[in-house]
Each structure stands twice: as structure tokens, then as C-alpha cells.
Amino acid sequence: MKSGLVICCISILAILMAPSISLAFSESGYIVDDLITLQEGQIDIGLVALRLAKEVYPEIDIAEYSKKIDGIVVGVRALTRYSTDPDFRIRALNTYLYKHYKLEYDLSDPDAQKLENHFITGILDTKKGSCITMPLLYLAVAQRLGYPVYPVAAPSHLFLRYVDPKLKLQNIEATTGGGYVPDDEYQHVLKVSDKGIESGAYLNTMTYREFLGDLIAENGIYWARQGDVVRGIIYLDRALKLNPKSADIHYTLGELYRELAKTAVAPFDRQHSRVSKEYFQESVDLGVVRLSNKNYVAEQEKAQAAYRQAKGEIK
What we know:
Oligomer: single chain
Structural class: mainly alpha
Number of helices: 13
Helix content: 40-55%
Distance between the termini: 19 Å
Largest sheet: 3 strands, antiparallel
């Protein structure tokens, strides 16, 4: 099954900066300090996503939202009839999520500016999501079903991969109905460099721990946008320990330290500036890709049409 892809281009511009301070990042006492101790087999994607959402939405009941995920699992399982065929499983999962559950992309917010389009609670409340929350919910459901589905990072995008040697078309594009998109199409449309692939920053099947790093980074960006840049840096630093190959986390840390340098007094201004440059350079070494926020949907559609025309799929 072929599909297009919807891209969220999300930057960390316009962050409110905290006053210059002496940074001590080794102690925090935040929830992330517990989460980063989880091993691969201990991570329930739905639960960790809900725990991180509760930081932003303290009023939510994690158990009740987790039951919503379980309800989807029950519905999918009824369609699959416990089949072990990976293609049948994906088709049943897609049928339930997009036909029965009515999951859809939030076209009113194509670049995910709404806060609810960054957290799993938003999509569970509205059944509308973004390129962040749609693959996140899909993954949470697939994991509870016991399917070997894992996240795959691309520039400003996330898709999924069903890892099974019996399945030829393993990629799953959750933003457009769960169809298949080949790696080279992602590479062409999202301008992924060979360096980005070789380093493992992009198009690499991630572990749950690596993806947990990305979820923690999302919270770090949230706190930085609220003006708590130090907390943002703490979270991103923890995230990098889980996913050290992330070019995007390195780049965002470069942005945060650069902003701190603007308001810091000597000698911290020079220290922050130096650290910023180091993170930026590491992101370059990993093959970071920064997509334009201007007309990105049109640019994506044009690039995708050109790719498919070259492949002879459209005339």
C-alpha cells in the first residue's frame, strides 16, 4: 500500500530566555531521571508518553488514558483474529485506526503549532494528530499488541517500521493511513544526506530507549519555550544519553546554548557560546538536515511528485 507523507517542520525559534545563571546540570529531580533508567524491555511507549504528558497537563489521569489505548488494542485484535502474518496485521491495524477509530491528520495545524499536537493525550482526546502524535499512538498500540514495530527518525518527521524478514514492505507512514513509503523516497523528499544515514541519525530503526530520548527531548523543548531554558537543556542532555546519534537533539542543544550566551555575563557567555558551537558541529558531523518552514507542504508535494515520476509511478 503506497501513501504520501505529511511533514511537520518544527523549530525552536522565539524561545523566552531565562536570566543568566551558573548552570549545574548534574542534579535535577525531574521525572526524566526515573525514565532514563528504564531498560528496553521495561518501556511501555504509551505509559512513558503519558507520564511525560502529565508534566504539561498535571490534571490528566494516566490510568484512564492508558485504558483508551487498551481499547484500541482490543478493537485491532478483534480484526486480526490473532493472525501472525505481518502484512495482515498492518492492514488490520490500519483499518481499525483510520476506518473504525477515525484517526486523521489535523489539517488545521499542518506544522504542529498547537500544544495538543505534541502529546499523546491530544490525539486520544480529539482523534486528530500530527507527524509527532500519529506515529506515537500507532506505535503505542502496536507495541501492546506485541508487534515488532519500531520508530524511524527523518528530518522533521517520524515514521514506523515493522521489523520482520518475512515482510518486504516494512515502512509504515502513520500520517496518511499507514501505507508504505520506501526509504529512498523519504531520503529524496526530506533531503536526507548520505552522512545522515551512515551516522544512524536518520532512516535507522530505533530502539524504544532511543525513542524515549526523543520523547524526553520534546518535553525539553516545551520547557525551553516556556522560558525555562535550563530545564530544557537538562532534558535534552538526558535525551542525548539515550539517543546519542540524534542530529536534531544536538542541533537543538546548540540553539539553546547559543541563546543562553546572549544573556549570560562573562565568563559564562563565552563558555555557552563554545558549547553551542560544539553541539552544532556534532549535529553537522551526524548529517543534520534543517528543512525550511516556508511552503514546506508544497515543496514536499513537488519533491514527491518528481520522485514518483522518475520511478514511473505517475506520468
